[in-house]
Amino acid sequence: MITYEAIRGRGVVEESGSYNKKIFAHVTEVKMEELNMEVVRSTDSSTIARLNKAVHDLHYSLFPEYFKAYNYEEINQFFQKLMADNTSNHYFYLLHESGQALGYILFEIKQYHESAFKKSFKSIYVHQLSIIKESQSKGLGTLLMDKVCEFALEHGIPKIELDYWVNNETAGRFYHKQGFKKYREFLYKDLT
User: Fold this and answer.
1) Alpha-carbon distance 13 to 22, whole Å?
2) How far is CA 138 from the centre of its chain?
């Protein structure tokens, strides 16, 4: 979950707790211009399926008991179906540098309905973020997360959620650096 404190340091959220969309958009735009990059919404399933290989291979190496080996055709078909579903609240954004795709982010607008136990609320849920290997650790993941923050603020959604595999220490460090905080833990017990 990202909090307003996480983006307050970027001059976007004022002490009152309100945010300034113009400053946020300007900060992100300046950063992108300096790097000659753009982040755009995409329905290019083949490029996203190709970019998925890096993160999928990492998950497969960490947890082969859960993940299949990377299969471009299956992943491309999955993304095509998701993109073609007009009722879907899923969004894909590609990060380009001089026309070359370097990474993507997949997120969803989630609507949590009121129940006897919980209040209703909306959040952005980040499902995947992937940067090609040779472009990692250069701040590109931050550019993609900035786009998600911008999207959330523009849509009046005050919370961004995600999860990552605990053995993926690189992801853990990245998300904590982005201002995400743990608010729920997911546990399991093998019975075999």
Assistant:
1) 11
2) 16
Query: What are the C-alpha distances in Å from 179 to residues 2, 8, 35, 172?
Result: 6, 10, 23, 11
Q: What share of the chain is helix, strand, coil (3-state, %, to 5)?
A: 40, 25, 35
Tens of pLDDT, residue by residue over 44-78, are 999 999 999 999 999 999 999 999 999 999 999 99
Nearest to 67 by CA among 76, 58, 79: 58
* Single pTM value for the model: 0.80
Place of tokens 């075999």: 192
Amino acid identity, residue 94?
A: L
Q: How far is CA 114 from the centre of its chain?
A: 25
d(C-alpha 30, C-alpha 42), whole Å: 22
- Which residues of the chain register pLDDT less than 50? 1-23, 25-28, 30
β-bridge pairing 100-112 and 121-131: antiparallel
